[in-house]
Request: fold
Amino acid sequence: MSSHPVRIGLVGYGFGGRYFHAPLLASAPACEFLGVVTRSPERRTELAGEHPGARAFDSLAELAAAGAEAVAISTPFDTHADLTREAIGLGLAVVCDKPFAPGAAAARELVELARREGVVLSTYQNRRWDSDLLTVRRLIAEGALGRVMRMESRFERFAPQPGPPAAGGGTLLDFGTHLVDQALLLFGPVDTVYGELHARKDLGGRDDECFVALTHASGVRTQLWGSWAEGAPGARFRISGTTGSYVVGGMDGQEDALVAGRSPATEGDRWGEEPPERWGRLLRGDSGETVPTERGRWDTYYPAFAAAVRGEGDVPVDPMDSVAGLVVLDAARTSAAEHRVVTLPSAEQAGAGSAP
Reply:
């Protein structure tokens, strides 16, 4: 790759910006982390203590004037589209956090705008590089499960005060974005969508639980659960095939590592490793075996994005994949509201299932 790191900034220094983006940007040798657009005195103090070489900026325009070539947007979901549009107008390559936009139509407009302006655009679907998902992909590629028939996938947590943060827009847009993206990545476009949502008046109508059932054109059925109110979280994955099933519990450990102050820069080759006690099992009735978990690789996203900015590779996540995911999420919301199964025209899901 080019010897000149891509000069990149970040918009937002809340939980996502502080833990999911800044440490990975600062750890990526292909990137020069310029700083963060935030006017919050508290956030600026945190930034100065955690990344002393990074500046605080008042606006995207100020970041661009400081020489930025790219920006990562990690702000409340309802600001994503406007900030992405502004960044594209400034000629900045863009990484936008999930959900990319409130719905598929708005997301598609942003993709078309970026193409017209010749700006590199990608979405931050970091969960494509979770250790458990990478293990699932390996097992499927090896044929260890036979022909896959069904996947159960869960993002379930129990919060002290159950309910998704307002910044995420509800569980379907928050956890559901990852769940659906992973399902499309593994098994391709969807024929039918069924959804259930549990919305709460005390959360402004946001849903704290969601269930989505998909039938893929490939014939695989996926059942997806998201919850901020589950006292007994289920298995992260159960993948059922004709010759066996793979089951793994718990969440990938990269989030906890980043929150604890560790990063690819501090951990080196140990980054993303899961201890043996967290490995999943390949089961065949009463018999089974423990399967080593792949190393989680969130650290690969920003080097790949930097290569795309330099014209030396594809973006790590095609934004049209996120459009395809939002088509499914829109249908799940319609299904829940109208109590019916929604059939999707295949043309609406262009790009679904492309690999990272």
Summary: The radius of gyration is 20 Å. Residues 120 and 311 are 9 Å apart (CA to CA). The chain has two domains: 6-126+302-318, 129-296+325-349.
